[in-house]
TrEMBL record:
PANTHER family: ARYLSULFATASE FAMILY MEMBER, ARYLSULFATASE G. InterPro entries: Alkaline_phosphatase_core_sf, Sulfatase, Sulfatase_CS, Sulfatase_N. GO terms for cellular component: lysosome. SUPFAM superfamilies: Alkaline phosphatase-like (SSF53649). Transmembrane segments: none annotated. It comes from Gymnodraco acuticeps (Antarctic dragonfish). Residues 32-377 form the Sulfatase N-terminal domain. It catalyses: Hydrolysis of the 3-sulfate groups of the N-sulfo-D-glucosamine 3-O-sulfate units of heparin; an aryl sulfate + H2O = a phenol + sulfate + H(+). This is Arylsulfatase G. Keywords: Calcium, Disulfide bond, Glycoprotein, Hydrolase, Lysosome, Metal-binding, Signal. The keyword Disulfide bond applies.
Length: 542
């Protein structure tokens, strides 16, 4: 038994190594460009193409991208909250290995452990121009900031757009108040160690390692992202340099800041349409530069934040009914399908067959090995990876993805990082259930399940009725799942490359352009520092 087990692990590692080392040849030596677009808190059902019967028209550009590319219908964010999901996407490893199991705060001192190797770092070494636009949320101080983790260029917000005040707050529940009005010449630093939209620290906009605006004007962010993204695409093309553009949108996270004069009753739809136009602009810039050599991969970081009611997205058919019928929400922060099954489209004209869809079981962790494989880059062999190279699914019609995929707890009650749920084929087993706060405030409690609850997602995507434990089907599946879960836990427990994240906080760690001013406001008297279209530097982060 012990020998067989070791052999199994070894062969698993070898296979993983082979997959990662495979170099895909594609028409000469020209390296492909990569655009990874990560939406925030978007629901599987928000993509029109995922629910054609609903006859909505919120995402025409993404629908077109799906028609010219591939829709991945069983694609999962690696976690159901922000920081762990992003850490796993950039490292190809579960949070239990990369150390990031829950969110960082405004006052976090550290971030993604420095022992972790990131996707942009590896591509940068191979001559790629690496740019990031948008929400980072993997540590904003010193060595943890994006430009020190592999990005040549960065423009964006260091964490979520509700973690800091703005002068004109967008739509949130409860509604955020505006920042305290500026009182120049009054020295009064107010820093809250707390996250959330009531943080007294103004939301900063950061370029490279400088705060260029604070508080950020949320309502012009989309335009800033759009012009930076199109500029990056065009200038990389002019230099003839392959590039990685990681665009981590503020959409669809609250506070929503849709175009002015949007119908109050349709704020979410208006924001979704705005996001879709931004994606369309990026696609168009790419199509007009290096169309046939650019892969665009659109996905989400986790499911909708149900607690935000009308400002939350749609889980589509993945309603987590077992949970909702017992109280609590079943989307973001949970391991119910609505928490991590995310709308995903891959587009690469001439390479990815047009108008196709795949139900291969895939994860955001697969972005790392897949892009490296397409670029002909081998990741360091001193660590273990959990993502798989999905090249054959994207390019060659392969329908199989992960044999087993684990969904970690990253928000609801219980230990962060706990492997609550295992997926294999059409079956999903819950060892622990737990709910996040629903619209209306219900929360549901954490519950251990021994024997586990097992759902057949093919016939019961809404996870309503678990299989009868007496059936042979249940017993066979439960045995396979339990064995695999124990193997993975053993493997992680014995993994020498596991990193530990430092989650300690200190009020002084909050990004602040000028501690002498209310809400860390860049001095309005110094016009060069505030809302300057030229982005003159206010303050350099140490
Ligand atoms: C950021 O870096 C780019 C070069 O990559 C440079 O052109 C730009 O001026 C920098 N911005 C700031 C605010 O330092
Ligand atoms: C894409 O496929 C769908 C059905 O699978 C079909 O109705 C539609 O016409 C196709 N679109 C194009 C542009 O071929």
């Amino acid at each position: 038994m012990a020998v067989g087990f070791t052999l199994f692990l070894l062969s698993g590692m070898l296979m993983c190594g082979l997959l990662l080392h495979k170099v895909t040849q594609h028409g000469g030596s020209k390296k492909p460009n990569f655009i990874v677009i990560l939406a925030d808190d978007i629901g599987w059902g928000d993509l029109d193409a995922n629910q054609p019967d609903e006859k909505r028209n919120n995402t025409p550009h993404l629908n077109l991208m799906a028609e010219q590319g591939q829709r991945l219908t069983d694609f999962h964010s690696p976690a159901s909250t922000c920081s762990p999901s992003r850490a796993a996407i950039l490292t190809g490893r579960y949070g239990l290995r990369n150390g990031v199991t829950h969110n960082f705060a405004v006052s976090s001192l550290a971030g993604l452990p420095l022992s972790e190797v990131t996707l942009p770092q590896l591509l940068q070494k191979e001559g790629y121009y690496t740019a990031m636009i948008g929400k980072w949320h993997l540590g904003h101080n010193g060595p943890y900031a994006p430009t020190n983790r592999g990005f040549d260029y960065y423009l964006g917000i260091p964490y979520s757009n509700d973690m800091g005040c703005t002068d004109i707050p967008g739509y949130n529940l409860p509604q955020c108040p505006p920042c305290e009005s500026p009182e120049p010449h009054v020295t009064r630093l107010k820093r809250s160690a707390r996250g959330g939209c009531y943080s007294k620290v103004g939301l900063p906009l950061i370029e490279n390692s400088s705060i260029v605006q604070q508080p950020l004007d949320l309502w012009t962010l989309t335009e800033q992202y759009k012009s930076a993204a199109t500029r990056i695409i065009r200038s990389a093309r002019e230099r003839g340099q392959p590039y990685l553009l990681y665009l981590a949108l503020a959409h669809m996270h609250v506070p929503l800041a849709p175009p002015l004069h949007s119908d109050e009753g349709r704020v979410y739809a208006a924001s979704l349409q705005e996001m879709d136009r931004l994606v369309g602009a990026v696609k168009s810039a790419s199509d007009h530069t290096d169309r046939d050599n650019t892969l665009i991969w659109f996905t989400g970081d986790n499911g909708p934040w149900e607690q935000k009611c009308q400002y939350a997205g749609s889980v589509g058919p993945f309603m987590g009914k077992w949970q909702t019928s017992r109280g609590g929400g079943s989307a973001k922060r949970t391991t119910w399908e609505g928490g991590h099954r995310v709308p995903t489209v891959a587009y690469w004209p001439g390479r990815i067959p047009a108008n196709t869809s795949s139900s291969a079981l895939l994860s955001g962790m697969d972005v790392f090995p897949t892009l490296l494989s397409l670029a002909g880059v081998t990741p360091p062999s001193d660590r273990r990876y959990d993502g798989i190279d999905a090249t054959d699914v994207l390019l060659h019609g392969e329908q199989t993805g992960h044999e087993f995929l684990f969904h970690p707890n990253s928000g609801a009650a219980g230990e962060f990082g706990d492997l609550q749920t295992v997926r294999s084929g059409k079956h999903k087993a819950f060892y622990i259930t737990g709910a996040a706060e629903a619209c209306g405030g219900a929360t549901g409690r954490e519950q251990l399940h021994d024997p586990p609850l097992i759902f057949d997602l093919e016939v019961d995507g809404s996870e309503e009725t678990p299989l009868d434990t007496e059936t042979l089907e249940y017993q066979a599946v439960a045995q396979r799942m339990a064995r695999r879960r124990e193997e993975l836990l053993w493997d992680i427990a014995n993994d020498k490359s596991v990193s530990a994240a430092d989650y300690s906080t200190d009020a002084s760690a909050a990004p602040c352009c000028d501690p002498e001013h209310t809400v860390c406001r860049c001095d309005p008297e110094h016009t060069a520092c505030h809302c300057d279209p030229e982005h003159t530097v206010c303050h350099t982060l140490s």
